[in-house]
Structure formats: C-alpha cells, structure tokens
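We store sequence, tokenised fold; for instance:
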Amino acid sequence: MDFKIVLTTFWLVFLAELGDKTQLATLAFSAGTTSKVSVFIGSAGALVVTSALAVVLGDLLSRHLPVKAMHIAAGGGFVVIGALMLAKELWNR
C-alpha cells in the first residue's frame, strides 16, 4: 500500500467534499432525525460505494485511454461545469 497516495487521495476528497451538496444533504438528514449514527452509516456507505465505482471505472478507462487524456477530460469537465454555474448565476441577477 502506498501511504502517500492514501493521504493525497484522502485530503483531496476531504477538501472537495467540504460544503458540497452531499455534505449539506447529510447535514439536513442529521438535523431531521434522532438517529445520527444511522445518518453517518448511510452517508459513509454511499461515499464508499461511489468511491469504489470510481476506482473500478478509472481502472477500466485507463486500460483503453491514456491517463493524460483522462486528466484533461476530467479537468475540462470541471471547467465546463464551473462555467455553466457561473453563467447561471450571472443570468439570474
């Protein structure tokens, strides 16, 4: 196991998840129930499953596409999503 990759992945996902809609949904569920442990288990389980799917999909794609192309596509996707969100905010002023 490569602990440098573990720590890098942990911090990148941790920072990416701060304040996103998944975390806000978990916050809302937690506020609306007395079973905080159940909300934590459900939320953590969902993140584990989606992360596992991402790892499997990344492995499959890397067998057919160069890693650099995958990085460019992922970065381009984030730029497009950001531009669309910015355009929506500017349009609704």
